[in-house]
Specification:
This protein is an all-alpha fold and 495 residues long. The chain is built from 17 helices and two strands. Strands 1-2 form a two-stranded antiparallel ribbon. The chain is flat, with a radius of gyration of 31 Å.
Length: 495
């Protein structure tokens, strides 16, 4: 049974349980809701919660565990001889999954019968062609062991889905009876519902925490695996980035791939510095104008228009850098101008556009921080004879400086993690250079390129993306923690 229909069945049982639970509670009070401990809706909600929560919990756990259990059993059916040189067990299992899904899709589309898909004696060459004719993705010719593993995988998935459907529906029906057992006048349904909602909210809040922990653990495990295959000293101190997707080592036993992070970090920091050089003055001046000079009508129009920049997708900024800013800079600094720039993709191109993207981050945060400065400080300055500009320079900005620094650091962490603008606007050359009109690349751009290539996922050339991500995570985490520390200290002083 499809998961969508299973969800509808559970929701239907919950709705029926709500109606019956409400009616039974009223009936137990002789039709007078005043004799009930809780409102009638709480009794219905109690039944619905006891139907949905256990059923959906079981469904989620089952769907998460099912791939690991099935693939663990299927992988034992494939002989080691099927793993070709340059391949891995994970890539082979990916081929098994594709073949299994292809068989199911072909049966559903009417291109073959279920008996043909389950036929253990089917010719694997003919099966490969039939799957291709059915429009399924098959990367190479399916061998007999892979075909048998795919057939077993498909059968296990179907059986598992059937058992899951039976178990979920049974749990949901049991929840109906469990909830109806409490549909009595003296049952404290409101307390139960409120407590259940509280735990549901706790679970929802925990998802974000658990997701963060999962991301960090994934980065750590894959980074450790990378450093088992590639020397950490060469990663952190080698000034060359030149991956060789063929892998291998030279005569001295050193890896042929040069995976030094230094040029990538330099490109990341260089572009971020140019972006901040654009965003900080413009954003700060805009914040000062909005908070100190603009009237209510002007502020009501200008601030939303400025913050529209924050809602523009970064891919649009990247295209703006590639198609507009790059050619514009070429016209000024290219061969027809000063002769400093050879192509539209350069550090300056990406830095300028990224700076435009960061303006609302700096201006909005700085505006809120400047507005938080107590009015009494301004009034005291005016009372001593200071002008408006002198008050801003000597009173408001010094008082708001810790918060403004925190806003700048948060904008810097946003710049360091940007991807699409640098992919389209900065180029792909990993080099150490001070020339802002040359093409460079960043850590995020190389994470994308390393994970979208044809390298084996277990090779250093692919796993380096996790080491790059871990390094970037530590840098941005440090910036965020420092920024939050400054902002919190500032708030403690002026709240």
């Amino acid at each position: 049974m499809p998961v969508f229909w299973l969800i509808l069945i559970v929701l239907g049982l919950a709705a029926v349980g709500y109606i019956i639970g409400r009616q039974r509670a009223l009936a137990s009070a002789g039709g007078d809701s005043r004799h009930l401990h809780s409102l009638p809706s709480y009794y219905g909600s109690n039944v619905s919660i006891k139907v949905m929560v256990p059923a959906f919990f079981l469904m989620i756990v089952w769907l998460l565990a099912q791939p690991f259990v099935i693939e663990g059993r299927v992988s034992g059916m494939i002989p080691d001889s099927e793993i070709r040189e340059g391949s891995s067990a994970s890539l082979l299992m990916a081929e098994v999954r594709r073949a299994s899904e292809g068989l199911e899709n072909a049966v559903q589309g009417g291109f073959m019968t279920d008996e043909d898909a389950r036929n253990a004696r089917a010719d694997f060459t003919d099966m490969t062609q039939r799957l291709k004719d059915a429009g399924q993705v098959v990367t190479n010719t399916i061998t007999q062991p892979i075909l048998k593993a795919a057939q077993a995988h498909r059968a296990m998935v179907k059986s598992s889905n059937l058992y899951m459907s039976i178990a979920v529906i049974a749990i949901a029906v049991a929840g109906v009876f469990w909830g109806l057992a409490g549909a009595k006048a003296d049952f404290r349904a409101r307390n139960v519902v409120e407590r259940s909602i509280r735990w549901l909210l706790v679970a929802a809040a925990s998802i974000a925490i658990l997701t963060t922990i999962g991301i960090v653990l994934s980065l750590i495990f894959n980074t450790v695996e990378f450093f088992r295959l590639y020397p950490a000293s060469q990663f952190f101190f080698n000034p060359t980035w030149l991956p060789s997707f063929g892998g291998g080592t030279d005569a001295d036993g050193n890896p042929l791939s040069k995976l030094g992070i230094i040029p990538l970090l330099w490109g990341t920091l260089y572009i971020s510095l140019i972006a901040l050089a654009v965003a900080v003055p413009i954003g700060l001046f805009a914040a000062i104008f909005l908070s100190e000079y603009a009237g209510p009508k002007t502020r009501a129009i200008a601030k939303p228009m400025l913050e529209v920049l924050a809602g523009i997708p970064t891919i649009v900024y990247g295209l703006f850098a590639l198609l507009t800013v790059g050619p514009l800079l070429i016209g000024v600094f290219g061969d027809d101008g000063l002769g400093w720039m050879q192509a539209g993709t350069a550090v300056m191109t990406a830095g300028l556009v990224m700076g435009i993207m960061l303006i609302p981050f700096v201006s909005s945060l700085s505006d809120d921080i400047i507005n938080a400065v107590p009015q009494a400080m301004r009034d005291g300055s005016y009372g001593l004879g200071a002008t408006k500009s002198e008050t801003i320079k000597q009173v408001v900005l010094p008082a708001a400086l810790p918060g403004i620094v925190g806003a700048i650091l948060l904008a810097a962490s946003r710049a360091i993690g940007e991807t699409m603008i640098v992919v389209l606007g900065a180029g792909a050359a990993a080099r150490l250079s001070l020339n802002p009109f040359e093409a460079m690349t960043t850590v995020t751009a190389k994470i994308v390129s390393q994970l979208t290539g044809d390298a084996d996922f277990a090779s250093p050339e692919a796993l380096v993306a996790f080491a790059l991500g871990m390094t970037l995570f530590i840098i941005t985490l440090g910036l965020n923690v420092f920024a939050l520390y400054i902002v919190r200290k500032y708030r403690e002083q002026y709240d």
